[in-house]
Amino acid sequence: MTVPPPSTLHINLAALDRVQPQLARRLRWSVASDHVLRQADGSVVLKTGAVPQPLQFAPRALVHRLHEAHPPKAVFAFGVGLGESVETALRFWPDATVTAWDRDPWMLRLLLSRGDFSRALLTRRLRLLLGADLLEVDPTTAGKLVEHPTLVEVYRHEKKAWLATPPRNIALICTQGLFVNDVCRVLRERGFTPWTLEAERVDTLEFEHTLQQVHPSFAVAINQVVGLPEAVDAAGIPLLTWEIDPAVDWLPVPRHPVPRSHLFSFRRAVADTLADSGHGSVHWLPLAAPAHRRPVDPTDEDRARFEAPVSFVGTSMTGRARPYARKVHRELRAWLHQHDRPPQQAAGLVQTVLASQRANLDRWLVPELLDTHCPGFRSWCEQTGRPSDPALLLGELPAAEHRLKAVAALAPFGVHVWGDPGWNALESAGVTVRGFAGHFRALTRIYALSRINIDIGRLYQPDIVTMRVYDVLACGGFLLAAHSDELEDLFEVGVEVESWSTRAELVDKVRYYLANPDKADTIARRGHAAVLERHRVDQRVDRMLAVSGLVPQDG
């Protein structure tokens, strides 16, 4: 039998075994790779935020940046990416030692798969660092800094922690996404040093290794991560989890009591449901306006690109709706079979539930409809380990239809919609579809320059105030928000924000406020003041720190 030759990765790892055995072992641990994507044109991008960022860059541009009269004795590559900077530095400066660091184990694996670095590793001309290894390096003696043009921004919190060596009061930020940058900023202002780790991407062993390296005072997670409360509690430090995103999964419950875990949810119902789940404490904590949302001084170009009489920004929800419904159909067939009922009844049952919900898109009915027509099905899904609540999966379809119909009803008023291609179905109805909106600059300008911004929540979460509400008001925009009891708790409806409950009411209020812009402007000014006074991210972070006993509580 022919034995295949060892891969480049295996050759490099074998060399690393001899010079950095602990790192070689860590690079063999499991790690997610779905955040690095190869596009149809062959380019490689990093999936981060709403818009993928390029990982590749031309070596020619790098060589231009590296050129200097006196070649350095040492080079420090901050962010490896696909490895162009490491390859070029080794070649361009043959007498220099190169240290290459990345936060992501997958990036180092990509580097070691790219070419044969075994000689450079064995002669210690090339040294690799992963994650918290960075904190062991003195930045004043690291050598010439070569930064990856994309990753230097993605890893900005690690860079700040490194340059602040020795860091103090480290706060381990366990996930990425919305609010992470704001939370890191606030923690830094409060005297902590944030260190980020994408807990869902790395192996449990790498997570434990990081805890041992950085000795954090506490950990923070944006959204719940299964198993994280137990792991952090076992390390003897507090965990602050702020749940901020809608989810179709069952509410995660710790396997055993985790007294150091403090859960904060933007859904009051979740806080009530999980009050006795084993967490040290569970609290309702609404969303908030991030610091980068603020009124703008628009240019003529801004007005041409973003001004609209009426606008909605968000997903059409159509991309997941039908696959979710098919998943419920399959699981319902399995449930019927196990209960000695004909599996072919599943299609009719699904259609009956959907038809009843579609007849009343202004109320969320799917859970009670499922319990009526398929009693015991939802509890069976939870008890048998199905990850998601079938009511929420099935509800995605009428929720998408509700959102589409609400926007379509505004076509006579010149509504513009920003989002995914699912919105294209409304072009024939007269809706102006604008495509994706950038999360930062573009979104702020849309909210500030739309005469009326529309908020349409998910039909299956009628009890929340969406992120859109805080964003629009922070930008000084006028908002017609989906009505809820929670909206009335957080804002003075009709004074700081306007609301709607049915499509007929939405249409009537859009017509009224387009005809009365002065009244809309007055409400927008009051809404902006309300956000600044009561609904900032730093206020939410301070609340979490105080409740968890990490800073003194006022009063």
Write the layout of secondary structure elements.
Elements: H1 8-19, H2 21-27, E1 36-38, E2 44-46, E3 53-54, H3 59-66, E4 74-78, H4 84-92, E5 97-102, H5 105-114, H6 118-122, E6 126-130, E7 144-147, H7 151-154, H8 156-163, E8 170-173, H9 180-189, E9 193-196, H10 204-214, E10 218-222, H11 228-234, E11 239-243, E12 258-265, H12 268-273, E13 279-284, H13 300-306, E14 308-313, H14 318-338, H15 345-358, H16 366-373, H17 377-383, H18 390-408, E15 415-418, E16 432-433, H19 441-449, E17 450-454, H20 467-474, E18 479-482, H21 485-490, E19 498-500, H22 503-515, H23 517-534, H24 537-547
Parallel strand pairs: 4-5, 4-7, 5-6, 8-9, 8-10, 10-11, 11-12, 12-13, 14-15, 14-17, 15-16, 17-18, 18-19
Antiparallel strand pairs: 1-2, 2-3
Helix pairs in contact: 1-2, 1-5, 3-4, 9-24, 14-15, 14-18, 15-16, 15-18, 20-23
Name given to the CATH homologous superfamily of the largest domain: Glycogen Phosphorylase B
Overall mean pLDDT: 92
How much is the radius of gyration in Å? 26 Å
Strand fraction band? Answer: 15-25%
Distance between the termini: 77 Å
What's the level 1 CATH class of the largest domain?
Answer: Alpha Beta
**Into which percent range does the helicity of residues fall?**
40-55%
Order of strands across the main sheet: 9-8-10-11-12-13
Note the total helix count.
24
Say how many strands there are: 19
Number of domains: 3
Give the overall shape. globular
Task: Give me the secondary-structure category.
Answer: alpha/beta
CATH topology of the largest domain: Rossmann fold
Quickly give the CATH architecture of the largest domain. 3-Layer(aba) Sandwich
Low-confidence stretches: none
Largest sheet: 6 strands, parallel
